[in-house]
Amino acid sequence: MVPMDPQAVLEGRVPGRPTAGLIIALTVSTLCALGVLGLYGWFGGGMGFVAALLLAILPIPLLISLVLTLDRVEPEPPRTLALAFMWGAGVAVLGALVLNTAGLIYVTVPVFGEAEGHFVSATVGAPLIEETLKGAVLFLLLWLRRTEIDGFADGIIYAAMVGLGFAMMENVTYYMRAFDEGGADQLTAVFVLRGVIAPFSHPLFTSMLGLGVAWAATHRNGRVAAPLVGLIAAMALHALWNGATTFGLGGLAVVYAVDFVLVLVLIAIVFVERRGTLQRIGRYLPMYEPTGLVTPQDVRMLVRMSSRRAARRWAREVGGQGAARAMDDYQLAATELALVHKRAERGTADPVWLAERRDALLSLMAVARQAFLRAPKPLPEGPPWAPGGGPSGFRRSEEAPGDVPDVPGP
After folding, report:
1. What pLDDT does 408 receive?
2. How far is residue 231's CA from residue 137's CA, in Å, rounded to a whole number?
3. Domain limits of the chain?
4. How confident is the model at residue 377, as a pLDDT?
5. I need a surface site. Which of 225, 270, 318, 333 has the fewest CB within 10 A?
6. CA-wise closest residue to 5 among 322, 368, 369
7. Which of these, 178, 34, 174, 12, lies nearest to 80 by C-alpha position?
8. How far is it, in rounded angstroms, from Cα 287 to Cα 367?
9. What is d(CA 283, CA 112) in angstroms, rounded to the nearest whole number?
10. At what angle do helices 20-43 and 152-191 cross, to 10 degrees?
């Protein structure tokens, strides 16, 4: 029997190497990013380019970690996250560089003149072009991998990854210009402004489209209108940001305040949706008690973040990293199972796919639990979420799944 690939089951993909389409998209995006860096180095070069590149990359690991912190209940596939980031850093940046330059030379400056042409390009042309190019990968996911987008949090996460990739490459040009014009002092000031104070501007803009795409992926109505509204909102925020400098410090203060409030709203959306997902686990997982894979005590463990963390710690104490991974697989499969019911509830997926997805997740839960139960010497008091000898699927030594209940149809 071929061993189960837990990651493939959780991601809803065929086990094995990435698909040809993903490999091609990642390759093209990477080549585009390298091409952009080559252009920067050719026209700028020297210490300014090196310093700018290092400063642009420096905060990225921390920023990505902060974004992925919001994605703990149902993490997105690393391969798809990498594609989103590289698309923003490669395809979107190169396309924007070509189209923005062409628009400035052949449209805005000839029509409006030098000064007004640059303003129109910054406040109209750049938002239209850049948000469309960044958002293209979100539309691609909606078209080809709709089932990977389970809610608003997923749309925000993918949009943030695209925006971080784009911002990283764009910052190289700003840092190079600052170094050329004012040396290390001005470079430091621009880095603090763009890399420390406002590093999430591009992720914020594109998150508006992420919300629209997430709505289209999880609802039967508004599948065309929601992404379009999100794209327009992304362009409007981008235009407001680019045009704020014309209103002096007051304009900048207003824009920073608006963006700060919107970031808080997006974080609130993620936490509200997380709570809803955990509530769905409590609503739907009890129907699987006849399979032996869950008990009421196990469900109570699954519906609280603190209990899930405690369960993983306990698993690690019982059986080391292997048991901890098995517990993590069990928890993630249970979460995905609740999201299967969410799609069934809303009628947004094919019933055959729903049944196959449900069965695969139940199988993973069974395999993960058995892998855990084969770990050496469980603790005498048993799972902490089932004290006093209370029933738990992680207390019994053997348990075979029973009949699987039907998933409600659309």
Report:
1. 53
2. 13
3. 18-275, 292-410
4. 59
5. 225
6. 368
7. 12
8. 19
9. 60
10. 10
